[in-house]
Amino acid sequence: MAKAPSVRADMTFLDLEDSVAPAEKVAARARVAEAVRSLAWDDRVLCVRVNAWDTPWTYGDVIEVVGSAGPRLDEVMLPKVQSAAEVVALDLLLTQVEKNAGLEPGQIGIEAQIETARGLINVDEICAASPRLETIIFGPADFAASIEMPVLTGGVAIDEYPGDHFHYVFSRILMAGRANGLQVIDGPFLKVRELDALRTFAQRTRVLGYDGKWALTPDQAEVLNDVYSPTQEQFDRAWDILEAYRVATEEHRTGAVMFGDEMIDEASRKMALKFVARGERAGRQRSAT
Ligand code: GLV
Ligand code: MG
Fold first, then answer.
1. Which among 61, 79, 224, 252 could bridge 50 via Cys, Cβ 3.0 to 4.6 Å?
2. Ligand 1: does its nearest atom lie under 6 Å from the Cβ of 115?
3. Phi, psi of 226 (to 5 degrees)
4. 200 and 262 share a domain?
5. Burial degree of 164 (CB within 10 A; 0-12, 13-18, 19+)
6. Which residues form the domain of 51?
7. 8: pLDDT confidence band, cut at 50, 70 and 90?
8. CATH code of the domain in which 59 resides
9. Is the pLDDT of residue 155 over 90?
10. How far is the CA of 271 from the centre of ligand 1 (A)?
11. How many domains does the structure of the chain reveal?
Protein backbone atom coordinates (compact mmCIF):
# COMPACT_ATOMS: atom_id res chain seq x y z
CA MET A 1 0.00 0.00 0.00
CA ALA A 2 2.86 2.37 0.79
CA LYS A 3 4.13 2.04 -2.79
CA ALA A 4 0.72 2.64 -4.40
CA PRO A 5 0.62 6.48 -4.43
CA SER A 6 3.82 6.60 -6.50
CA VAL A 7 2.49 4.31 -9.24
CA ARG A 8 1.31 6.28 -12.27
CA ALA A 9 -2.34 5.18 -12.37
CA ASP A 10 -5.66 6.99 -12.85
CA MET A 11 -7.21 4.92 -10.11
CA THR A 12 -6.01 2.74 -7.24
CA PHE A 13 -7.99 0.23 -5.23
CA LEU A 14 -6.98 -1.27 -1.93
CA ASP A 15 -8.17 -4.85 -1.64
CA LEU A 16 -10.07 -6.64 1.09
CA GLU A 17 -11.18 -9.45 -1.23
CA ASP A 18 -9.19 -12.17 -2.98
CA SER A 19 -5.68 -10.94 -2.17
CA VAL A 20 -6.40 -11.06 1.59
CA ALA A 21 -6.34 -14.43 3.36
CA PRO A 22 -9.53 -15.34 5.28
CA ALA A 23 -7.69 -15.23 8.61
CA GLU A 24 -6.67 -11.61 7.92
CA LYS A 25 -9.98 -10.30 6.54
CA VAL A 26 -11.14 -8.51 9.67
CA ALA A 27 -7.73 -7.08 10.64
CA ALA A 28 -7.19 -5.79 7.10
CA ARG A 29 -10.10 -3.33 7.39
CA ALA A 30 -8.38 -0.96 9.82
CA ARG A 31 -5.13 -1.08 7.85
CA VAL A 32 -6.90 -0.20 4.62
CA ALA A 33 -8.84 2.68 6.21
CA GLU A 34 -5.61 4.01 7.72
CA ALA A 35 -3.88 3.87 4.30
CA VAL A 36 -6.74 5.86 2.72
CA ARG A 37 -6.51 8.50 5.45
CA SER A 38 -2.79 8.84 5.79
CA LEU A 39 -0.93 8.16 2.53
CA ALA A 40 -0.19 11.05 0.16
CA TRP A 41 -2.65 10.26 -2.63
CA ASP A 42 -2.74 12.65 -5.57
CA ASP A 43 -5.92 13.37 -7.53
CA ARG A 44 -6.40 9.76 -8.64
CA VAL A 45 -9.66 7.93 -7.98
CA LEU A 46 -9.28 6.02 -4.71
CA CYS A 47 -11.31 2.89 -4.09
CA VAL A 48 -11.56 -0.06 -1.68
CA ARG A 49 -12.65 -3.50 -2.88
CA VAL A 50 -14.90 -5.15 -0.29
CA ASN A 51 -15.79 -8.83 -0.15
CA ALA A 52 -18.73 -10.18 -2.17
CA TRP A 53 -22.23 -10.56 -0.72
CA ASP A 54 -21.90 -14.38 -0.62
CA THR A 55 -19.29 -14.09 2.17
CA PRO A 56 -19.78 -13.11 5.85
CA TRP A 57 -17.72 -9.91 5.45
CA THR A 58 -19.39 -7.40 3.10
CA TYR A 59 -21.42 -5.32 5.57
CA GLY A 60 -18.58 -5.23 8.09
CA ASP A 61 -16.12 -4.13 5.39
CA VAL A 62 -18.38 -1.25 4.33
CA ILE A 63 -19.27 -0.09 7.84
CA GLU A 64 -15.74 -0.22 9.15
CA VAL A 65 -13.84 1.08 6.14
CA VAL A 66 -16.22 3.68 4.71
CA GLY A 67 -17.17 4.65 8.27
CA SER A 68 -13.61 5.52 9.19
CA ALA A 69 -11.65 6.19 5.97
CA GLY A 70 -12.71 9.84 5.77
CA PRO A 71 -13.63 11.98 2.75
CA ARG A 72 -10.67 10.95 0.55
CA LEU A 73 -12.30 7.61 -0.31
CA ASP A 74 -14.08 7.97 -3.67
CA GLU A 75 -15.55 4.54 -4.31
CA VAL A 76 -16.28 1.02 -3.15
CA MET A 77 -15.71 -1.87 -5.55
CA LEU A 78 -18.15 -4.78 -5.31
CA PRO A 79 -16.81 -8.08 -6.69
CA LYS A 80 -18.70 -11.04 -8.19
CA VAL A 81 -21.88 -9.02 -8.70
CA GLN A 82 -24.64 -11.42 -9.76
CA SER A 83 -27.76 -9.24 -9.74
CA ALA A 84 -28.96 -5.64 -9.59
CA ALA A 85 -30.20 -6.32 -6.04
CA GLU A 86 -26.62 -6.72 -4.84
CA VAL A 87 -25.79 -3.21 -6.08
CA VAL A 88 -28.98 -1.80 -4.53
CA ALA A 89 -28.12 -3.43 -1.20
CA LEU A 90 -24.68 -1.79 -1.23
CA ASP A 91 -26.20 1.56 -2.21
CA LEU A 92 -28.64 1.44 0.74
CA LEU A 93 -25.93 0.44 3.19
CA LEU A 94 -23.63 3.21 1.91
CA THR A 95 -26.35 5.80 2.47
CA GLN A 96 -26.57 4.93 6.16
CA VAL A 97 -22.83 4.70 6.62
CA GLU A 98 -22.33 8.09 4.93
CA LYS A 99 -24.90 9.69 7.26
CA ASN A 100 -23.24 8.30 10.37
CA ALA A 101 -19.74 9.19 9.18
CA GLY A 102 -20.62 12.78 8.30
CA LEU A 103 -20.01 12.23 4.59
CA GLU A 104 -22.00 13.83 1.76
CA PRO A 105 -24.98 11.58 0.90
CA GLY A 106 -24.21 9.79 -2.36
CA GLN A 107 -20.55 10.78 -2.38
CA ILE A 108 -19.21 7.21 -2.47
CA GLY A 109 -19.36 5.75 -5.98
CA ILE A 110 -19.64 2.06 -6.85
CA GLU A 111 -17.53 -0.04 -9.21
CA ALA A 112 -19.09 -3.43 -10.03
CA GLN A 113 -17.14 -6.48 -11.19
CA ILE A 114 -18.74 -8.90 -13.63
CA GLU A 115 -17.03 -12.24 -13.07
CA THR A 116 -19.67 -14.95 -13.02
CA ALA A 117 -22.02 -16.43 -15.61
CA ARG A 118 -25.02 -15.04 -13.71
CA GLY A 119 -23.45 -11.61 -13.49
CA LEU A 120 -22.97 -11.55 -17.25
CA ILE A 121 -26.54 -12.66 -17.91
CA ASN A 122 -27.79 -9.85 -15.66
CA VAL A 123 -25.29 -7.21 -16.76
CA ASP A 124 -27.88 -4.83 -18.26
CA GLU A 125 -29.86 -4.57 -15.01
CA ILE A 126 -26.67 -4.43 -12.95
CA CYS A 127 -25.36 -1.46 -14.93
CA ALA A 128 -28.65 0.40 -14.38
CA ALA A 129 -29.03 -0.47 -10.69
CA SER A 130 -27.81 2.69 -8.93
CA PRO A 131 -26.84 6.30 -9.63
CA ARG A 132 -23.71 5.59 -7.60
CA LEU A 133 -22.38 3.27 -10.31
CA GLU A 134 -19.38 4.70 -12.12
CA THR A 135 -17.60 1.71 -13.59
CA ILE A 136 -18.22 -1.83 -14.74
CA ILE A 137 -15.23 -4.19 -14.71
CA PHE A 138 -14.61 -7.59 -16.27
CA GLY A 139 -12.91 -10.10 -13.92
CA PRO A 140 -11.36 -12.75 -16.18
CA ALA A 141 -9.95 -15.07 -13.52
CA ASP A 142 -13.14 -15.58 -11.55
CA PHE A 143 -15.13 -15.58 -14.78
CA ALA A 144 -13.09 -18.45 -16.23
CA ALA A 145 -13.67 -20.40 -13.01
CA SER A 146 -17.39 -19.59 -13.05
CA ILE A 147 -17.97 -20.88 -16.58
CA GLU A 148 -15.59 -23.84 -16.10
CA MET A 149 -13.23 -22.78 -18.87
CA PRO A 150 -10.30 -25.25 -18.79
CA VAL A 151 -7.54 -22.74 -18.01
CA LEU A 152 -5.23 -22.33 -15.04
CA THR A 153 -4.19 -18.70 -15.64
CA GLY A 154 -6.81 -15.98 -15.85
CA GLY A 155 -6.90 -13.19 -18.35
CA VAL A 156 -4.28 -14.35 -20.85
CA ALA A 157 -4.54 -15.50 -24.49
CA ILE A 158 -5.40 -19.17 -25.15
CA ASP A 159 -3.41 -20.30 -28.18
CA GLU A 160 -5.59 -23.36 -28.88
CA TYR A 161 -8.64 -21.13 -29.46
CA PRO A 162 -8.92 -19.77 -33.01
CA GLY A 163 -9.86 -16.22 -32.03
CA ASP A 164 -10.50 -14.35 -28.83
CA HIS A 165 -12.14 -16.66 -26.28
CA PHE A 166 -13.54 -13.64 -24.39
CA HIS A 167 -14.75 -11.61 -27.37
CA TYR A 168 -18.43 -12.13 -26.59
CA VAL A 169 -17.94 -11.34 -22.92
CA PHE A 170 -15.89 -8.19 -23.61
CA SER A 171 -18.52 -6.92 -26.06
CA ARG A 172 -21.49 -7.82 -23.88
CA ILE A 173 -20.11 -5.90 -20.88
CA LEU A 174 -19.07 -2.96 -23.05
CA MET A 175 -22.58 -2.55 -24.50
CA ALA A 176 -24.25 -2.67 -21.08
CA GLY A 177 -21.75 -0.23 -19.62
CA ARG A 178 -21.93 2.29 -22.45
CA ALA A 179 -25.73 2.09 -22.64
CA ASN A 180 -25.74 3.27 -19.03
CA GLY A 181 -22.98 5.86 -19.32
CA LEU A 182 -20.43 3.89 -17.28
CA GLN A 183 -16.69 3.56 -17.65
CA VAL A 184 -15.77 0.07 -18.83
CA ILE A 185 -12.58 -1.54 -17.55
CA ASP A 186 -10.80 -4.81 -18.33
CA GLY A 187 -9.42 -6.85 -15.41
CA PRO A 188 -6.03 -8.31 -14.56
CA PHE A 189 -3.36 -10.04 -16.66
CA LEU A 190 -1.75 -12.46 -14.26
CA LYS A 191 1.55 -13.18 -16.03
CA VAL A 192 3.11 -10.13 -14.44
CA ARG A 193 6.58 -10.60 -15.96
CA GLU A 194 5.33 -10.82 -19.57
CA LEU A 195 4.95 -7.16 -20.48
CA ASP A 196 4.96 -7.68 -24.27
CA ALA A 197 2.18 -10.26 -23.99
CA LEU A 198 0.25 -7.84 -21.78
CA ARG A 199 0.59 -5.13 -24.42
CA THR A 200 -0.72 -7.44 -27.15
CA PHE A 201 -3.58 -8.77 -25.04
CA ALA A 202 -4.65 -5.31 -23.81
CA GLN A 203 -5.11 -4.18 -27.43
CA ARG A 204 -8.18 -6.43 -27.62
CA THR A 205 -10.22 -4.38 -25.20
CA ARG A 206 -8.59 -1.07 -26.17
CA VAL A 207 -9.67 -1.55 -29.78
CA LEU A 208 -13.22 -2.47 -28.78
CA GLY A 209 -13.54 0.75 -26.77
CA TYR A 210 -12.64 -0.08 -23.16
CA ASP A 211 -11.36 2.80 -21.03
CA GLY A 212 -8.56 0.91 -19.34
CA LYS A 213 -7.33 -2.19 -17.64
CA TRP A 214 -6.11 -3.21 -14.20
CA ALA A 215 -2.40 -3.13 -13.45
CA LEU A 216 -1.00 -5.51 -10.85
CA THR A 217 2.51 -3.99 -10.83
CA PRO A 218 4.05 -0.55 -11.54
CA ASP A 219 5.55 -1.97 -14.77
CA GLN A 220 2.13 -3.13 -15.96
CA ALA A 221 0.77 0.36 -15.27
CA GLU A 222 3.34 1.92 -17.61
CA VAL A 223 2.42 -0.44 -20.46
CA LEU A 224 -1.30 0.12 -19.94
CA ASN A 225 -1.04 3.92 -19.80
CA ASP A 226 0.55 3.65 -23.21
CA VAL A 227 -1.97 1.21 -24.71
CA TYR A 228 -5.09 3.06 -23.54
CA SER A 229 -3.90 6.60 -24.37
CA PRO A 230 -4.07 8.03 -27.90
CA THR A 231 -0.72 8.35 -29.65
CA GLN A 232 0.55 11.85 -30.42
CA GLU A 233 -0.32 11.23 -34.06
CA GLN A 234 -3.92 10.25 -33.24
CA PHE A 235 -4.23 13.22 -30.89
CA ASP A 236 -3.00 15.70 -33.51
CA ARG A 237 -5.19 14.16 -36.21
CA ALA A 238 -8.24 14.38 -33.95
CA TRP A 239 -7.56 18.10 -33.43
CA ASP A 240 -7.14 18.60 -37.17
CA ILE A 241 -10.49 16.89 -37.82
CA LEU A 242 -12.22 19.11 -35.25
CA GLU A 243 -10.73 22.21 -36.81
CA ALA A 244 -11.58 21.17 -40.39
CA TYR A 245 -15.11 20.32 -39.36
CA ARG A 246 -15.56 23.59 -37.49
CA VAL A 247 -14.50 25.54 -40.58
CA ALA A 248 -16.85 23.44 -42.76
CA THR A 249 -19.92 23.86 -40.56
CA GLU A 250 -19.43 27.43 -39.32
CA GLU A 251 -17.74 29.14 -42.24
CA HIS A 252 -18.98 27.15 -45.25
CA ARG A 253 -22.25 25.94 -43.68
CA THR A 254 -21.83 22.37 -44.85
CA GLY A 255 -22.22 19.25 -42.72
CA ALA A 256 -19.91 16.96 -44.69
CA VAL A 257 -16.51 17.83 -46.07
CA MET A 258 -13.37 16.20 -47.42
CA PHE A 259 -10.49 15.82 -44.97
CA GLY A 260 -7.50 14.60 -46.98
CA ASP A 261 -8.91 11.64 -48.91
CA GLU A 262 -11.80 10.84 -46.59
CA MET A 263 -15.18 12.37 -45.96
CA ILE A 264 -15.88 13.63 -42.45
CA ASP A 265 -19.17 14.61 -40.86
CA GLU A 266 -20.75 15.02 -37.43
CA ALA A 267 -19.94 11.42 -36.46
CA SER A 268 -16.28 12.10 -37.23
CA ARG A 269 -16.40 15.06 -34.86
CA LYS A 270 -17.78 12.84 -32.09
CA MET A 271 -15.03 10.25 -32.64
CA ALA A 272 -12.36 12.96 -32.64
CA LEU A 273 -13.66 14.48 -29.39
CA LYS A 274 -13.03 11.18 -27.58
CA PHE A 275 -9.40 11.13 -28.69
CA VAL A 276 -8.91 14.72 -27.62
CA ALA A 277 -10.46 14.14 -24.18
CA ARG A 278 -8.43 10.98 -23.56
CA GLY A 279 -5.24 12.55 -24.85
CA GLU A 280 -5.65 15.60 -22.62
CA ARG A 281 -6.30 13.35 -19.63
CA ALA A 282 -3.03 11.58 -20.47
CA GLY A 283 -1.21 14.93 -20.54
CA ARG A 284 -0.83 15.28 -24.32
CA GLN A 285 -0.52 18.65 -25.98
CA ARG A 286 -1.08 19.40 -29.61
CA SER A 287 2.15 19.38 -31.65
CA ALA A 288 3.20 22.72 -33.07
CA THR A 289 2.15 22.96 -36.73
C1 GLV B 1 -10.52 -10.25 -10.88
O2 GLV B 1 -11.02 -10.03 -9.82
C3 GLV B 1 -10.63 -11.50 -11.57
O4 GLV B 1 -11.22 -12.42 -10.98
O5 GLV B 1 -10.13 -11.61 -12.69
MG1 MG C 1 -12.11 -11.75 -9.13
1. 61
2. yes
3. -70, -50
4. no
5. middle
6. 4-228
7. very high
8. 3.20.20.60
9. no
10. 31
11. 2
